[in-house]
Amino acid sequence: MTQENLIRSSDALRHVKYEIRGRLARRAQELERLGHEIISLNIGNPGAFGFRTPETMRLAMIENLSGAEGYSHQKGIFPAREAIVMQQQGRGVVGVTADEVFIGNGVSELIDLSLRALLNEGDEVLVPSPDYPLWTAAVTLNRGRAVHYPCKPENGFQPNVEDLAALITPQTRAIVVINPNNPTGAVYSAALLRAIAQLAERHKLVVFADEIYDQMVYDDAQFVPLATLVHDTLCVTMSGLSKVYRACGYRVGWAVLSGQLRIAPDYLASMELLSSLRLCSNVPAQWAVQTALGGYQSIKELIVPGGRLYESRRAIVDATRDSRFLVLDPPQGAMYAFVRVQTEQLAEFDDHAFALDLLERKHVLVAPGVSFNVPYRDHFRVTTLPDAATLQRVFARIEEQLDEYAALPVTKRSTVVDAQTRFK
Question: Which residue ranges form the domains of the chain, and what is each CATH number?
Answer without folding.
Answer: 7-51+301-423 (3.90.1150.10), 55-294 (3.40.640.10)
